[in-house]
Amino acid sequence: MTSISIIGAGNMATAIGARAAAHGHSVEIMSRDSSKARAAADQIGAAATVGEYGAKPVGDIVFLAVLSAGAVDIVTHYGDALAGKILIETTNPFNEDASGVVTTPGNSITQQIAAVAPESTQVMKAFNTVFRNVLVVDQPLDVFFAGGDPAARTQVAKFLETLDMRPLDTGGLESTHALEWAGILLMGLARNGAGFGAALGAK
């Protein structure tokens, strides 16, 4: 069993938490709004608890499941509380009509987060190419991820496998901007016939 913490209490946070709980992991939910954190934990079930926003997360793996616009500020707020953790951010920095991203090569949201996180924090990106309604269906699923060092990516891959997912390692932080554009690719597929039950994968 792995203990994970999730910063955020929205749809993606509850989807990740529910899938982790269903596969035997404990989940801590942390949110500025304690009532939303409690509601998310209640939705996930008995495996979930509520942590104090800004305090050191219990989990060795911490998910940042918030809107991209606030992600860097949240990590700055947590500061040294994230030292030594694996931090997986799930954001998609889409423009207003989701036809592109607002970031540039070498300056992905993940890279911006890594710049303000403690040096010992392994910052990664995952789940931004998975729709929430696909994630909650407990079926095998490919998940692209990037960032961190090789040892951290190996640890995350092992965790994803416990969730009945096939981890697809796309490399270090330099690959995270490409994953942001992969989110745009998924949106394009969904809007042009594939629907929002579509999922990206590899063979």
Please characterize this protein's 3D structure:
There is one protein chain. This protein has 203 residues and is of the alpha/beta class. It has a single domain (3-194), classed as 3-Layer(aba) Sandwich (Rossmann fold), CATH 3.40.50.720. It contains seven helices and eight strands, in the order βαβαββαβαβαβαβα. The chain has helices at 11-22, 34-44, 68-78, 109-116, 132-135, 150-162, 176-194; strands spanning 3-7, 26-30, 48-50, 61-64, 86-89, 122-126, 141-147, 165-169. Strands 3-2-1-4-5-6-7-8 form an eight-stranded mixed β-sheet, sandwiched between helices. The model has no long low-confidence stretch (mean pLDDT 96). It comes from Cryobacterium arcticum. InterPro entries: NAD(P)-bd_dom_sf, P5C_Rdtase_cat_N, STEAP_metalloreductase. Residues 4-93 form the Pyrroline-5-carboxylate reductase catalytic N-terminal domain.
Describe this protein with a few key phrases.
203 residues, 7 helices, alpha/beta, single chain, Rossmann fold
Describe the SSE topology.
Elements: E1 3-7, H1 11-22, E2 26-30, H2 34-44, E3 48-50, E4 61-64, H3 68-78, E5 86-89, H4 109-116, E6 122-126, H5 132-135, E7 141-147, H6 150-162, E8 165-169, H7 176-194
Helix pairs in contact: 1-2, 3-4
First-last Cα distance: 29 Å
> Could you name the CATH topology?
Rossmann fold
Helix fraction, binned, reads 25-40%
**Helix and strand pattern:** EHEHEEHEHEHEHEH
Mean pLDDT reading:
96
Radius of gyration: 16 Å
Total helical segments: 7
| CATH homolog superfamily | NAD(P)-binding Rossmann-like Domain
How would you characterize the largest beta sheet? 8 strands, mixed
Morphology: globular
- As a percent range, the share of strand residues is 15-25%
Spatial strand sequence of the major β-sheet: 3-2-1-4-5-6-7-8
Number of domain modules: 1
GO molecular function, one term: oxidoreductase activity
InterPro entries: NAD(P)-bd_dom_sf, P5C_Rdtase_cat_N, STEAP_metalloreductase
Keywords: Oxidoreductase
Pfam families: F420_oxidored
